[in-house]
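hi! just following up on the protien thing from before. the input was this:
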Amino acid sequence: MSLSASCESVSQKRTVSNLLAGRVLKRPKQEDGQRLQEATIQLLGQQQDLCSLLREVGDPDLCNIFRSQTGEQKESKGMSCAIAGSLLVCELRRQALQLGVPVAVLAVKMVLERLIEITGTVDEKEEEDRRRELLTYSQQVQLCVLLESSKQLLSQGAFCPKLLWQEYRKDQRPPKLEVVYHLHLYNILTLKYILESDEGVRVWLVSQLKALCGWTSPEGEEETRQVQLKVLSTVVGVLVENGFERSHEPAAADKRISLLCCSVLDDMLFWLLETVEKSPMLKTAGAGAELWIQMFDASMCGGSASEDGLRCFFTHSLTHTLTYKPRLTVSDAITLQNEWTFAKASRLVTCLFRKLAVIFSVEQLLCHLQQVLETHEVNWKLVLCFLSTLLVYNPCAQPSLRVLLSRLLSSAFEGYDLENMITAFLLARQGALEGASIFPSYSDWFKMSFGGGSGYHAASKKSLVFLLKFLSDLVPFEPPQYLKVHILHPPYVPVKHRSLLMEYVSLAKTRLADLKESVEDMGLYEDVSGAGVASVQPQCQAVQDVEKAVSLFASTGRISATVMEASIFRRPYFLTRFLPALLTPRVLPVKPDSRMSFIEVLKKADKIPAAQYSSYVESCQKQRQQDCSAVCLDTNDDPLEVLKIQLQEFKQLLVEGNDGEMSAQLSRISHTLSVVFPACPDELIGLSVIKLDINSPPSSELHVKVVNMILRNFCQCMLDASRANPPNKQSLWASRFVSVLLGNTLLLSSLIHRLWDLFHNQGSSLSAAHLLGLAAFVVHLHNSMSHGPLVQLVPPTLPEPVPVGEALSSTLVLSTHANMVFCVRLCVAAVCYGMCRGDSLPQQQQQDYILSGFYKKLLYLIPRLLPEARRAPITAASPVSEYQEENLPGLWSSATDTNNTWRKTAWHLWRLPAFYQLGDIPQYQLLFSEWLANELRVQRSEDALSDPERQEYQQWACLDLYLPHPAEQGGCGGDMRSLCSHLLNAIMDQHLGKQSLEQLGHSVSEKGTCLPDILSRLQELIYEMEVTDLCGSCRSRADVADFLFEFVSERCSSTVTSASPSISTELSLQLTLNTWNRVLLALPAVLFIKVKTEGGRRTLECNNLIKHVNHHQRKVCSPAGLLSCHLTAHVLKGVLCASVRCGRAAEEVNKAWSQISLRCPLLLVSTVHWWERLSPVMLSLWHRLSDGEPPPEQLQLLTDCQTWACSLEKGRSLSPVPAASALLLAASLHHAWRGRGCNNQDFSAALNVLRAERGTQHRQVLVFLLFLCVNDYLLALLYPQEKSYQKTRTLCTDLLCVLVDSVDWLLIFKSNEQSVYQSIAMVTSDEFIQLMPWAFYSLLLQQSAELQQRAVCCPGFLHTAVLCYISLMQLFLEGHRLRPSTECFDNQMEPFQILSNAKQFLLRVISQTPPAALSSSQLTPLESQCADLDPEVAAALSVLLDPHSLSPEMDFL
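and the predicted 3d structure came back as:
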């Protein structure tokens, strides 16, 4: 086989590297190698692409590139690399000779192309790869092989590294730092050479370092992370080596490179500090700064730098850190120092300081700190944080800092140097801020430095004045704790210079007073380090002082100097705080303890007043007497276990019947409870209300366990006692047991809270025994607290505090079947026990054992759940004596019999005459309103009764129980109207009742309650009342319609209680009427139209309906001036249906509608507005009612008016004007134009048809139409919509253009003036009538000057303008809401602008109006009204009233 053929075959299967490697493995002989080299050269002669050849030669085994190799592998690899290098050199020389260029140039070109190819092979489709700051693993391997080949070329003189860098930098893209690192690592191009040779490398290097620090390697690339650290540490090492190595006589180039390296490192340091400054917490500072801090590790950056260079670098960095951005002044440092402690400093800053300080001793660091403070402007925050870091991490730093402080103070007083003085104080305070374990407190340091005669300031008066002047200068900036130290531990001052100290003390106290800080409340041993710890209350501080003083006395046997000084110099604190805390009454031990000994020593030293000491001894004796009867509990015993044993012993004593021992045991139980619930025994004296937060959990788990244990034990005792005797035969153990619990507010509150939770949330899980015991407990709790404090529920679901029994009864929900069953079981047990317990007592005392709330629950539930109870009520006339005596014991047996169901016990109780007799007492009567409230809370879906059963029960309760029941006993006294009033009130109150129940946590939904059922009962009763009235002969009573309107009128009157209602009153009225409208729509419409008989003929009377709409419905229309469609339809239905009762139905409809049109314009306008929707319904109804007769004329007229208005709106003016009222025509036109959105041309054409000159009716139609448009304009101003606002303003402007010459249009803005237009004011709400002056000026001021001038010339304009201005002023002064919504449109003015412009406009009108335009009878009242509101307008009017009073030269207007 020929060589060429073999080469071709090999090239198809194996690369050159594999081929060479295979040859090496065969260990060829030298002559074989020569032949192979010749063959290879022949092969290379056919390969002209050097880059492809280099790529092929440099194709490594990626799996083994970084693995350790055996000697044989290394040898073979070295031989292959050498052969590959020689091959490349040969080819390079051959091609260089052909091209006529140096070999090195061609080699650089080849390597550079391959280098760019490797570093540019990132997959640009992936965003993550485009953001990589380091090469991928594959790129790193290829780059290493390339550089190895380049090194081979360099060794054979065929490569120029400097030329490589020059060519590389010609490219616009800067190289990656990793590439430079590898060039440096392979010793091809050192970083030092790059720095020396390239002027722009500094900016590039800083940016590369920041980018590399801020880059995070992808997860799982741990080798990439190691490469990142190697690159950074190598670069930093080179920079430190070249920047901080000191030579004796450095050359200029060395100086330049040194400065450049320092500059790069400084930039990175400043970047680090800036990052920390912007993000002081590590969580937000990013990983870049933290990574750069690692570079300050001596082991990482010290590989290439010497120890001296490293020290120089760290010193340099520390100096630049301490002097970074020295913006804070000394006063700032004094004020903010408390926030600069080690704990509050950024962890990055403290980590940086630790790195920089690691190779120095503490003395060296403090000396350097002093040198920096003396020679530089410093960043005080960083300086003090550095000191804190030094103290915290170096326990031996405290002595060195003391030496430094001593040196600073000595220097300060020697030269009266303020800088050293303030430095010493700041450093001392910083050390004290770190706590006593780090450095002495500031008070100790201050006393040590200045408290004695040997202090730094004691040498001369000048030194003393220097110190006091220095302290005085600090006062405005001092935190209060340091001022307190200076006052309580003042510097030593000779007596003759005492006045100097007092001046400072006075100044410091004044500053403390400004800061609202008290020196007197400061403790004797209070820590004033100012480390930001929350201040301790004076009482607690005094207790701590006592404990410290007693502790010191116990260890030394002497009174501490601090206490002795306080007894002399701080006597107020000593007498009012310290001694009361020391002399707290207690049971004195038999053997005197340290506290007793300390008190005796103080007494002998005359430090305790005799009266105070005597009072203390007496109180201790009383304390011992109180505790004599109590068993002393071992403090090591668990109170819960002790209480459990005591309660079990009490239960045993109850079975044995030993009353004396039971009382003693109760005393022991009380003592144990006082340990668990620490409280004063007399706590309830004067306490009137106990607050119970029903939403919060109990105070602690221990308290819950204790309360559960008490209740459980009481239930067990009750069962045991009831087995032997009924309640009236038992001893007073239960009352005594409960009374013991009432002496502690905390315990009582926990008990009530637990009972609330059991009754409200866990009722279904309680057994019969639990219920019986808890019921008895509640009875005794109610009896014991009958004259005690009340309970206030929080949140306040009840209107006021109530007795505990009522509070607990409010927890019993009656909304579902399960709730009802639990409630009836509990209430039956409680009432049975109460009746039996109070059997032999007088009636008044019996009531103390029967909770009225529980009794009323039974009056509601038993008839509801037991139908037989409705048929057999016990009457008061029933014999009671024998029956009661026989059945009370039987009742209790029935209650305690486990075989009995609650139904049997409840039925037994219901038939008991004693139970019924309680109903004669007012507090035990279940009122009809209360019954309704309970019924409305029942959830229909979870009711115990089905729908038919519920209907039967409610009808029985309404008609058989409460209707005949006397009114004084909560019934209706036979009055059907009273019954319906109660139903209406209950329905109306449903919303308020719902809110209250939601506060109680009851689940209430309008859809799920019995509201539909109660509405059905109301409909039945109202209909029955209407039918009864129609059939009855007595007509003296009010009609059903009158009754309904009187009812709603009373409800509205009770809501509005003042002449000037507030916003809350208006909202309440609106809620009332909205609720009423629901009721109104639920009742037959015919009931609201009264049919009266006059002269044997029946007619319709709508007076009450008209009055109701005008006085009530008008106020709550939304939007203003328009009733709802449903309400309008209901009224029309009522008129049509009621007319059928009359002889001539159509005629009565016409009469009624004529009356409505004349007196109730709101109903007329609303009917016109909704007529398109209502006409099919009304006409169909009339057709059904009248057997096909034609509709009444008034109904037909509504249709005709709408047809005419639509034709006019469409430009067809040929249709005749219907013979209708002007308001009806105006309303029809308003609806047509408003609803269909006609354009301005059609509107103007229609106005020309209705011009005021054509007749009075047309003018009235236009004026009414203007009022309706002005009402829309006000709506658009208050609730703006851009289209609506623009449209209504245009309509008003067009109408004004037609009407401006007529007097009539002014009348709609004077609603109090008698005119044909006065009734139109009843269309809209009172609020809108009040805002008509605002609309007057808002519209007029936006018109053209020509139109304004025409308006001014209109007769009566000035009178109207002045009245509107007066009303507008009153609106502003009374605080009415004039501000529209935040949305504004073009040309829309703010209210205050309208007022200001209105005044200017009015003054101009007054000046242009001739005196004869208004009579004196008109002007005088206007002037008097303006006198108080606007004297300037009043003055202008007075000139108009008396024009001769103004001289010509004064006529500035």
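The radius of gyration is 51 Å.
The beta strands are 689-693, 790-794, 1090-1094, 1097-1101.
cheers
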